[in-house]
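Could you help me review a protein record that somebody else here produced? This is what I was given.
***
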Amino acid sequence: MEQYNVVIIGGGPAGLAAAKAAYDEGERSILILERDSLLGGILNQCIHNGFGLHTFKEELTGPEYAKRFEDEVRARGIECRLNTMVMDLSSDKTVTAMNRTDGMFQIRAKAVVLAMGCRERSRGALNIPGYRPAGIYSAGTAQRLVNIEGYMPGRKVVILGSGDIGLIMARRMTLEGAEVQVVAELMPYSGGLKRNIVQCLDDYGIPLKLSHTVVDIEGKERVTGVTIAEVDSKNKPIPGTEEHYDCDTLLLSCGLIPENELSRGAGVEISPVTNGPKVNERLETSIPGVFAAGNVLHVHDLVDYVSEEAADAGRNAAAYVREGNAPETENGTAVTFEGGIRYTVPSTVDTEKMKDLMTVRFRVGSVMKDRIVKVYANGEEIFKKKRRIMAPGEMEEVLLRKTELQKFGGLKTLKIKVEEA
C-alpha cells in the first residue's frame, strides 16, 4: 500500500489551493487525485471574467484563474494523478482509487483534504410534469457543450432557476445567437449574485420572473414548448397564471449539491442544511485528520473564497501531520445563530486552536434590508457590522479575533445574530 502524508481528493480550485498551502507549510509528501483529464475543475468551462478580484487583484477568466494555481502547484513539484477516480475513503484515511495505468490501488494517508466540489440538482429531483424529450439540460452541461465541446444546445431557450450558472448561461446563449425568452425562479428572490442579474439579464433585456416555475413540458422527441405559472407562498402553482413559451431548449439552474458520497461512506458527520461536512475552526471534519474546503463543504459564490478557505485546510492538514496526530480534545464551543441565518462554517470553535484571525461564513434564508450582524461571546457583544441588504445568493462573513475570545477565560457560548438596524 502506498503512503502519503497529505492526500487531496479533487484537483479543482480548492484542491490546488490546499496543495500549494500544504507545501508552503513545509509538507513534501502530497498527492492530488483528480478524476478529469485536466486540473482546474469547473473553472475550465467558465470562460467569462470576474474571477480573481480578491486573490490576484485583477479580473481573470476561469481558465486563467485555474492556470495560475496549476502553475504554482507544478512549480512546487507536487504529484498529481489525473483521470483517477476515488472509489472509497475509509475512516482510517485509506483511499481506494483507480485509473487506467495503475488499475485499482490503495493509499494510506496521514491527512486527507476533501475538495470534490459540487454537482447540479437534476431534473429528476424537481418533479416537473411532462415527457422526457431531448432539449432539457442542466445549465452546467449546456455551459460545457458551448464553451468546451463547441455545440449549441438550442436556439429558443427557457431557463428555470436563477442560480449564477443559469444567469451566466442566459448571457452566453444570447451571445451565441440563441433567443433566451425568460428566466423563471421558484423563490421570491434570485439565487444568484446581484452583479450577474444586472450583467446577464438586465443588459440583454431578458425578463426574470420570480415566484414562477415550470408546470408543463411539451414535446415527445424534442422540447417544443414550456408552460410556466406563478406560485403561492407554499410554492404551489396558481391556476390561471400560466404562460406558454414556444422553445426547443429548457435549461435547469436549480441549485448545487456538495459531492459528499465519499464523506458519508467514511462516516463524516454531514450538516442537513449545507449537505456538506460539519467542521471545526481548523476545517476538520468529525474524523480527525480529514479536512474539507470549497464547495464540498458549502456552496460558495466566489472562487476567491474557495481558494482562501482551501488554503487554510491545506495548512491545517500539514500541521496535523507535523504534530504527529496528537490526540484530539473536545474543547470546541458550538456556534449558534438566529435572526434568519441558515448555517455557519465552522460550526464549532476551539479558542486554543484557532488562528489569530478567523473567518466565519454564513448565509441567510431570505432577503433582508437594514440589518446589523452581531457576535456575542458568553452573552457579551464583541463584534458588529451594518448590512444594508443581505440575500440568500450572497455569502456573509464575520471576523473573530483569538485575543478577543480568549479574554473570557472559558468560552461557553458563541452566537451570531442578525438584528434590525
User: Anything to note?
Assistant: The radius of gyration is 22 Å.
